[in-house]
Amino acid sequence: MIEDTYHLGVKALIQNHDNQLLVLRKRPKRPQDVNRVVWDLPGGRIHRGESLEMALEREVFEETGLKNLPNKSFLTMALTPSRIPIVPHDVGLILAVYLCPVKGFVAAH
Fold it and tell me: What does the pLDDT read at residue 27?
């Protein structure tokens, strides 16, 4: 049996005082999905030398502009069905999810 290879990513479940969650509308990566709406949680993969929490802070800032998530807490870790194409084969994706209550963001309707 061949062992699989995985990348580790981190996602933020950002919740405001009204218990609304922040999700991002993303552009589809594949041309055939151009008319499809894609939603995702802020986050991404970890860079060499980063801790999970450092990567979470960096990715959330890059994608939302939010800084300093002082009340973040680890929620869960999940093995996703996603495959990332890397030559000569693809790798799986494991996500660590943090709950991040914040003050201040207002949901758009």
Answer: 78
